[in-house]
């Protein structure tokens, strides 16, 4: 089932943020129907740097290819501002679509973007973003590859201006509309009233964020189609690694933590090592008859 077909079921799709093959595999095993290749999580894990546009298209593509080699569920890819102007956006869409993206998200921040925890976010003009959306739509090979248009306008402009941008992006042909930074329930309600039955709406749920809703159920009741949890996995993994390494340094062992850790056998079972070893036997030269 394509991502477009999944959205047509009018059921909320929860997509956790992933950043490598292992996090993607864990999310798929947990039963999620789709994944979000998070730009912030990728910047944190690949570079140990803030999400300010340092990750390149090449790095995003390589990560996506590895994820698609390991999981079968749809992946929505965070392409930031599209890595440049409208022509860059077109190339970005072609490259990510070939690498297996089910959907590609483009935002209206300037190229030298601000990290997610900062409120001031300089934006490109509405008309420039419309041009980027049109370039993305023209560049995709298949209409099954969806284009998600994200606006960070609420951080810089009024809600009415943000809504005006969302209307323009929808009219330009964006398949999914995402207005980031909505801090009032009435704003979410006005957005859903505006686009109900017209365009799927996406919302971010950040752990510890300022969203007026905090659960998937609340978003489903409002009429949203997609909810992202972009930082949950990387925040949890970072906390666990930090605690484990501090304990190891202090105590010289991890005995107090082992009940909550995979041992070598369970970790290898998780990633499918027994299946790979069994498959290797089929290609062992001693198993072939002349």
Explain what the structure shows.
The chain is of the alpha/beta class and 290 residues long. It has a single domain (3-237), classed as Phosphoenolpyruvate-binding domains (TIM Barrel). The protein is 45% helix and 12% strand. It is built from twelve helices and eight strands. Strands 1-2-3-4-5-6-7-8 form an eight-stranded parallel barrel, surrounded by eight helices. Helix 2 (21-29) crosses helix 4 and helix 5 (86-98) runs parallel beside helix 6 (126-139). The protein is globular, with a radius of gyration of 21 Å. It starts with a helix and ends in an 8-residue tail after the last helix. The mean pLDDT is 95.
Q: Strand order within the widest sheet?
A: 1-2-3-4-5-6-7-8
**How big a fraction of the residues is strand?**
5-15%
User: Which homologous superfamily in CATH is the superfamily?
Assistant: Phosphoenolpyruvate-binding domains
The percent range for helix content is 40-55%
Identify the notable features of this structure and list them briefly.
single chain; 290 residues; alpha/beta; TIM Barrel; 8-stranded parallel β-barrel; globular
Blueprint of the fold:
Layout lengths: L2 H6 L4 E6 L2 H9 L5 E3 L1 H9 L9 H12 L6 E4 L7 H13 L4 E5 L18 H14 L6 E6 L7 H13 L4 E4 L5 H11 L5 E4 L11 H7 L3 E4 L2 H20 L12 H7 L2 H10 L8
Parallel strand pairs: 1-2, 1-8, 2-3, 3-4, 4-5, 5-6, 6-7, 7-8
